[in-house]
Amino acid sequence: MSDSADDGLVPGTDIPFESLPKVSLHDHLDGGLRPATIIELADEIGFELPATDADDLGDWFEESADSGSLPDYLATFDVTLGVMQTREGLTRVAREFVQDLAADGVVYGEVRWAPEQHLQRGLTLDEVVEAVQAGLEQGVDDVHAEGQTIRVGQLITAMRHAGRGLEIAELAVRHRDRGAVGFDIAGAELGFPPANQLAAFDYLAHHLFPTTVHAGEADGLDSIRGALFHGRALRLGHGVRLAEDVTIERQDDDNTYVSLGVLAQWVKDREIALELSPSSNLQTGAIAQWGDELVDHPFDLLYQLGFRVTVNPDNRLMSNTTISRELALLTETFAYDLDDLETFQLNAAAASFLPLEDREDLADAISDAFDEL
């Protein structure tokens, strides 16, 4: 990283990345725990950890997740899920999650998680959703007490391999007025297409409940097609492999000439947001066909072509990251400026699952804050 990025400042300014107002669309609750909290919760329930020092445990998560494989990356969640099986554990994790978002400058966040993974100690699906909502609300109160502003919502997620999609979709709709703002499917993408959850997506469409679908991360264009057709996705979780439908025809010293396939053109024309997570995409090998460094990530290509790109951490613990760090890495790699950083946040605000008027208010607040920098 450059000196400016190392200092946490937007290059050429004295503005910390953390001070920029941000919108977080792709951030997993079970991927954002504090290592110290994991240790305390594990001690309370007798759960064995790979390390009992907070720094060592944080290093273990990052090193284990940096595997080049999505299934191996997902294996690290056995630990975080292990300490998120009680009402008290879920509420504490959710509360701290909001506090940490606010510390990174997030003013609106959608928190995704899979309730079906938190039933090992006898809680029901509704009880775990209520426990998380209680923590989120406590976190919001904490942030407001510090004089900051934040708003959060739950993205209720079904695990695509587990076959409970309809049940989880019903759960999401049941809680739509109590914190749930959208639905997602996650987990092993390859071999578990959105079509497998068609009953869930039909139910959600019938009840006019918005969806975002993990697609174009561990699988390619067919997965994205399935997310759009079967899942009726309004956003693509990652979606980075949409770049497979972009053909570079020729390049010269000043320009790159490309053509878009039908799928890429559709996503662009309809401004379907891509929930890109650069560090995570490197760790899981999602961009392996283009390279193994951030400069190889098709983020900038998609941005320059006019796609609605957004910047997300995915899993802050596993990637040892925040949105501020992702913005710093992208800025250092692709020479972005404040206007670009504002565009990423406005893209995310427009793609959020807030009501239209609230999205417009959020965009205005972001623009006003950037104007004051």
The sequence of SSEs as H and E is HEHHHHHEHEHEHEHEEEHEHHEHHH
How many beta strands in the DSSP annotation?
A: 10
Indicate the proportion of strand residues: 15-25%
Q: How would you sum up the major sheet?
A: 4 strands, parallel
CATH homology-level superfamily: Metal-dependent hydrolases
User: In the residues, how many domains can be counted?
Assistant: 1
Arithmetic mean of pLDDT: 95
CATH class: Alpha Beta
pLDDT < 50 runs, ≥5 residues: none
Q: Output the structural class.
A: alpha/beta
Task: Enumerate the strands of the largest sheet in spatial order, edge to edge or round the barrel.
Answer: 1-2-3-4
Radius of gyration: 20 Å
Shape descriptor = globular
How many helices? The count is: 16
Our measurement of the CA-to-CA distance between the termini, rounded to an integer number of angstroms, reads 23 Å
CATH architecture: Alpha-Beta Barrel
Notes on the structure:
This protein is an alpha/beta fold and 373 residues long. It has one domain (18-368): Alpha-Beta Barrel (TIM Barrel). Helices cover 45% and strands 15% of the residues. It contains 16 helices and ten strands. The chain has helices spanning 3-6, 35-45, 54-65, 70-75, 77-82, 87-103, 125-145, 165-174, 198-206, 221-229, 262-269, 278-284, 299-304, 323-334, 338-351, 356-371, and strands at 22-28, 106-113, 151-159, 180-186, 212-215, 235-238, 246-251, 256-260, 273-276, 309-311. The strands form three sheets. The chain has a four-stranded parallel sheet, sandwiched between helices. The protein has a four-stranded parallel sheet with strand order 5-6-9-10. Helix 6 packs parallel to helix 7 and helix 15 packs antiparallel against helix 16 (356-371). It is globular, with a radius of gyration of 20 Å. GO terms for molecular function: adenosine deaminase activity; metal ion binding.
